[in-house]
Every structure is written in C-alpha cells, then in structure tokens.
Request: fold
Amino acid sequence: MISLTEENYLKAIFHLRNDDNTVTVNELSKFLNVKMPSVNNMMKKFAQKNWVIYETYKPLKVTAEGKKQAALIVRKHRLTEMFLVEKMNFGWENVHEIAEQLEHVHSDLFFDKMDEILHYPKFDPHGEPIPDKEGNIIALDLQKLSNCAIGNQVIFSSVTVSDDEFLSYLNSKELELGKKLEILEIEKYDQSMSILKEDGKKITLSKMVCDKILVKL
Reply:
C-alpha cells in the first residue's frame, strides 16, 4: 500500500515533471517544502519501486510506472472535485482542500463508483483532464490568455491554479468554463486585457490573472 507521504511526492512529480519526464530533487524540495536529504531518501525508495531512475546530482527520470502511479493519485483528486461540484453542489472554489483529504482513500472501488455515478467525466471542474484507470491522460492544446492577441476569439477552458481566492475572483467576474471570450484591447503599459464576454459584458483582467487562465483558440 502506498503511504500518504509517498502519494504527496507522486502528485508533486505529476505537476513538476518536464516534457522529457524529468524532475529535479531541488524542485521537489521547494514544491513540498521538504529538506533535500529527505527528498533524496524518498527518491531512493522510489527508485527501488521502479517509479524513478535515481542518480546522484542528476535529474530524476520518471519511469512509465512512476507516471502511472502519479496520474492515479491525481485521478482520485480530480474525480473527487467533480463529484463535490456535480453531486453535492459545492462551488468550484471550495473543493480543492476537501479533495486533498479524500484522495488518500485507498479503495479503488470507491473511486470507480464515483466515476460511474458521474458518467465517466473527462475533465474536472477546473477544466483539467481526469486520468483514466490506467493513468492515461488527454493532451490539451491550450495556451495562456495572456499570450493571445487583439481580435482573438477563444474558449475559456481551464485554469493553472485552483486556490479559492483566485476562483472566487473569477466568480466575481462571472467567468465560466466553456464560454467564449474576445480580446478587445491590450494595455501596453501593464499588459492588462480588455475582454468581451459571451454575454456581451466587458471586463478588464490584469496580466497576472490572464497568466492563470488557459484558453482554446
């Protein structure tokens, strides 16, 4: 059985690994706020389980099995978030912390039933793909709103962070996933954007906010 601490490391690897399936001990240390010697010791254990290839002073290479185990932890988290929103009427800004706790339940049957009740969703409430039972995940072709140009019409598809303060801010702007946005103007001084929403309302978003919004052209 995978321990809670191991699951937290796996989830960190999921979020931090690069396109070449590598991650550094230093990145894990900062992300988890854990001292380097502790991370090194844990990665040696992961190497014994064939989750990573560990060599001193070199980036960790995440194995296929390591990627799968990491994705399965994320699957539990994102399924839980979707269940809380769809079946328990939580706001998308209120589900992350609860899912952080429930993702450590070890019953596959529990999450398989949750998946069935939800009719096998492909995405969580924040627009992020839910890995399947084999750890496979849909590749998304999205870009930051801040990288778009004046005149672009885009679909608000996901967010890069899911903290309650940021999501509550998006709620205050009545921004919803799946809705069309048009970039009307980009301020030269601070790169803030004037946006026309699908409902015809205009809003202004700072570059910091636009960096956290992912869209599909």
User: Anything to note?
Assistant: The chain has a mean pLDDT of 96.
